[in-house]
Amino acid sequence: MEIVAARGQASAAEVQAALPNPPSYSAVRALLRILEEKGYLRHEVKGPRYIYLPVHDPAAVRRSSLRKLLETLFSGSPTQVVATLLDLSRERLTAEDFQRLSELIEKAREDKS
User: pTM here?
Assistant: First the structure.
């Protein structure tokens, strides 16, 4: 799904080529078909290939998915989500990442006022 969203459109072969340790072509096609059946993707026929396109704005899908995850696993607590993410990512975060996070928190604080 992310590969199709990032490219705007992609064939099964393009999705397969973009995956690390890709599954078989048939498995990629099956997954794309399932995503289409669930309403996340649609396809257009171009020559002998299906070209898959996202149905919804990827940012909106991420927000909706995160909202469900927040409710399901974190009792609706954004603080618990952020604490878990920081715990998992601590070693990979740079000084710039911490600065950006601080700026986002400050902006959210100002927007709430």
Answer: 0.59
